[in-house]
Amino acid sequence: MEKRVTFKGIWLPLLLVLPQILITAVFFFYPAGQAIWQSLFIPDPFGLSMQWVGLGNFEFLLSDRFYRASFLTTAIFSILVTVVSMGVALYLAVLADRLIKGSGTYRTLLIWPYAVAPAVAGVLWLFMFNTRVGVVTWYLGILGYDWNHVLNEGEAMGLVVVASAWGRISYNFLFFLAGLQAIPKSVVEAAAIDGARFWTRFRTIVWPLLSPTTFFLLVVNIIYAFFETFGVIHTITSGGPQQATTILVYKVYSDGFVGQDLGSSAAQSVILLVIVSILTVVQFKYIERRVHY
Amino acid sequence: MATLKLDNVKKSFGKTDVIHGVSVDVEDGEFIVIVGPSGCGKSTLLRMVAGLETVTSGEVRINGKRVNDVEPMDRDIAMVFQNYALYPHMSVFDNMAYGLKIAKVPKPEIAERVQTAAKLLQLEPYLQRKPRELSGGQRQRVAMGRAIVRKPAVFLFDEPLSNLDAKLRVQMRLEIKALQRELGVTSLYVTHDQVEAMTLADRMIVMNAGVADQIGAPLDVYANPETEFVAGFIGSPPTNFIDAALVGGQSGRIGVRPEHIALSDTGLLTATVGYSEALGAETLVHLRTGDGAQITVRQDAALPIPGEGETRGLSWTDENVMRFDASGLRQH
Ligand SMILES: Nc1ncnc2c1ncn2[C@@H]1O[C@H](COP(=O)(O)OP(=O)(O)OP(=O)(O)O)[C@@H](O)[C@H]1O
Ligand SMILES: [Mg+2]
Fold first, then answer.
1. pLDDT per residue as tens digits for the range B194-221
2. In chain A, what are the domain boundaries?
3. Nearest CA in chain A to B14
4. CATH topology (fold) of A64-290
5. pTM greater than 0.90
């Protein structure tokens, strides 16, 4: 039976949700509205006046070679971050699921990276891969590999992907482990008796039953890669070399605060806002329809 | 077609010993029921035969071959789980075909074998449904179907009927028996329901806290229980136990089945009548002896029902008395 508290008047409930509404208004609706408003103007070089350009900023962006390149960079970056962090997490979760003893310790250790702030994680990885004093760089040098992510675009991308994925593995691991443990043991045992070996069982039973978790993580990780990796990129590469790691959210920052092109920056935020809204809608639609086994 | 042999099989989980050494020889085509109260180790024993649990010591042999270290998929067995363990994301057809597909049986043969099984189990209208769209009884039949299409050497059942209502349980019990007769597959069937055990078994293993107290044909076990536990567990209502000292005996207790006690004016013992249950063909009279022991007498419905609070004598003949020593073992 559903237990629902009902209020008589309108004032008490309003009062109770007011703090949340205020926070959302101050930190979301107001800046979002401002971004939409600003995206319709171009400020003059001294910031003294604004000139109405309608959708001019958007038109310019969509025809801008650098902006389109940033789109591609973002796509590559988020796919890599998502695949790497989910792949590693799933592998570890499968191992932990089979482990009976000591899985608690294992789990605790795996959760630690999640507690590290992205910017701090970026600095950690930067130290290890520093082109002059980094430990990993030094070992790679012994092996005859000359690591230099400051100049090499591929290496720069690789490093920000690894640094971003690393902090994400814990989160994905927890969800995958919970998902695996929610699959009835007897179903997997029945498959074993039916003749399925480990990989066949994984492919035909575990993976399909895990798909709601996988889909959820896919969306969450893409959103993470789009937005929350700012700190990692800022500390490690600052979007370089030659914009090779300038993802959309970083471009908003560099065009707006470094390049002082507030109109374009605002227009870019609006585009990001649209993208994340679409992702969220897709996710909610799916969760609504998703089958509960 | 297969024989199954357990030789002094033991199981411990860490330091807890759960199975203390069970030995049994199962003949080809025999239907063996493992029966015992909850927690006595029935499932554990079955899962060791299936290969889902390691054997701590002793041997499991299928067709003479030692299978202790053989993976479940290589044992040529099929199992029906208590919760059915159907694959929730597959149709009924795919559930039944799963094992055959893995064994790379040709498609037309898979279709034919699944059809045959579906017909046998009256599942034909449901082949395209998902398990969640089926009733409990239908799911149970799918689980059976999944086991029989593979034509395994040994069937294992872990309380397959315990999630069904009473009527369906009786019906499925008959179907399982008929099916096993028809297919002639060696079967191991776990239940805590002694009626199921009595009706299904060629032989039954009565388990008590990890020990096989008695192995034998149902009627033999009923007539000649080897321990006090078996005498009390098999039979409904259960055997009456009376302190041997009360009826001129030595130490230990005696057991007399409810149908072997008659009410009379005088008897070997007197007891006070409690309530009676008239079941139609027979009447169960519950009494209490002077020392507080509960006695049940099963008598013909034609006999008069004694009034509550009356004192009646209990009498029985010596050949129906089972004597147990202080440790619960039968004295002959
Ligand atoms: N994985 C395990 N680890 C530790 N103890 C276990 C494990 N599995 C079972 N046991 C213990 O072994 C004993 C026998 O369990 P089992 O499941 O075989 O009982 P059962 O006879 O099938 O009971 P039921 O009729 O309730 O299913 C129980 O006391 C149980 O607590
Ligand atoms: Mg059990």
1. 899 999 999 999 999 999 999 999 999 9
2. 64-290
3. A101
4. MetI-like fold (1.10.3720)
5. no
